[in-house]
């Protein structure tokens, strides 16, 4: 089963943007993320519509962070991405005729709902500022800098 890694990727991009003095182009972000610039533009356009990033066209243009890192949680970004499924497991059959499978599905539904509520609450507890602080602590420990190019050099 393929995992949805958009949240992880977008958080990665947002933290890099927080460190950039100049706008980052879709091309530079795509190189860093190992994807196509069109994918970056599509995802970033949704974040721009939510006010998390802004963009400028032309020479010297690109993407910039447009939000306060302390005011945005991982849950906010999850919602901005359309609230993709958090759990990759599900029922064998959604509408079973078998009473045993109905009982199994009912028990799993309760467990899935509880797990999702817990995960969403935890995502709501973590801000982009907390992630940035963790990144900075790791950089200090390593003695490096947090530039987009240096962090993702081939």
Automatic annotation (TrEMBL):
It comes from the Bacteria. Gene3D superfamilies: Winged helix-like DNA-binding domain superfamily/Winged helix DNA-binding domain (1.10.10.10). GO terms for molecular function: DNA-binding transcription factor activity. It holds the Pfam family Rrf2. InterPro entries: Tscrpt_reg_Rrf2 (IPR000944), WH-like_DNA-bd_sf (IPR036388), WH_DNA-bd_sf (IPR036390). GO terms for cellular component: cytosol. PANTHER family: HTH-TYPE TRANSCRIPTIONAL REGULATOR YWGB-RELATED (PTHR33221:SF15), WINGED HELIX-TURN-HELIX TRANSCRIPTIONAL REGULATOR, RRF2 FAMILY (PTHR33221). This is Rrf2 family transcriptional regulator.
